[in-house]
Amino acid sequence: MKDLVHKMRVAVVQAAPILFNKKATTKKVVNIVREAGRQGAQLIVFPESFIPCYPLGLTFGFTVGQRDEAQRDDWKVYYDNSVVVPGEETQMIAKAAAEAKAYVSIGMTERDETHCSLYCTNLIFSPEGELVYHHRKIKPTGAERYIWADNQDKDKHFPVIDTPFGKMGSLICWENYMPLARAALYKRGVAMYLAPNTNNNQEWHDTIKHIAVEGHVYVFHANMYVTKDMYPDNFHCPDEYAKLPDVPLTGGSCIVDPFGHYINEPVWNREAIIYADIDPNEVPRSRMEFDATGHYSRDDLLELVIHD
């Protein structure tokens, strides 16, 4: 690992999108990036599918072998508010990243520019305002497969980017439960491990602590805070709305160090920008006795093949 800077200021964003409204949500993203930049953040991390939102609790009328025709219109609202990459929204975020002089990681639902499929995507913009990272979720979880396609683009499977803080990469939500996907990032030298997601349970926090210890990496967990009254009132699914808790997404965002310890306690039930000053050199320091794909690996016995 090359020499790293000794100080890095991180901002993990726990916020609510303007649900199903990409224009308004993008404006909110830009304002948050500018605020975090004023506070000196060098890396700003947003949650999974922040633009236009993660549609927790909604089915869009999908049942096995059947569709609710009225809810096609609800899905079309989600489709229309998904983001073409590159496009107007990415240009706005790129400009804000350059103004803040920070790396900006953000999850969004991406609409392919050629066909009509949607993808759960994570992008990273550089401090120079360039789109330098594009990862599509390789396997949507459970009913997410109703709305998001599998990532079939090999260039977008397990990218990492080189930064002054170490190599940076991301897995989205339950991709992090895929052992070989994690190993692919470890193999490529990731030190700054971004985990945008929508999990707010204890098991998820056990997971991110384990990843931090397993990979000896910093893990940045960014989740949304969303209340039931933020959902639109004109969708065709009153029964689904009725089943939602008052706070469907309670947050729990946090940062875990390479030894598996919270740098900050998880933040719950409110919007917040969580700041932390970290030392990237804790990554090589933590790997003295265990380096998963370095001196502790046995490539003569175990081999990982990545089809890129």
What topology emerges from the helices and strands here?
Elements: E1 8-14, H1 22-38, E2 43-45, E3 62-63, E4 66-67, H2 69-80, H3 88-100, E5 103-111, E6 118-125, E7 131-136, E8 167-170, H4 179-187, E9 190-196, H5 202-215, E10 218-222, E11 225-226, H6 238-243, E12 249-256, E13 267-268, E14 272-278, H7 282-286
Helix pairs in contact: 1-3
CATH architectural label? 4-Layer Sandwich
Question: Which secondary-structure class do the elements indicate?
Answer: alpha/beta
Alpha-carbon Rg, integer: 19 Å
Strand segment count: 14
User: Which spans have pLDDT < 50 for at least 5 consecutive residues?
Assistant: none
CATH class: Alpha Beta
Biggest β-sheet description: 6 strands, mixed
What is the share of helical residues? 10-25%
> How many structural domains in the coordinates?
1
* CATH homolog superfamily: Carbon-nitrogen hydrolase
Strand order of the largest sheet: 7-6-5-2-1-14
CATH topology group: Nitrilase/N-carbamoyl-D-aminoacid amidohydrolase
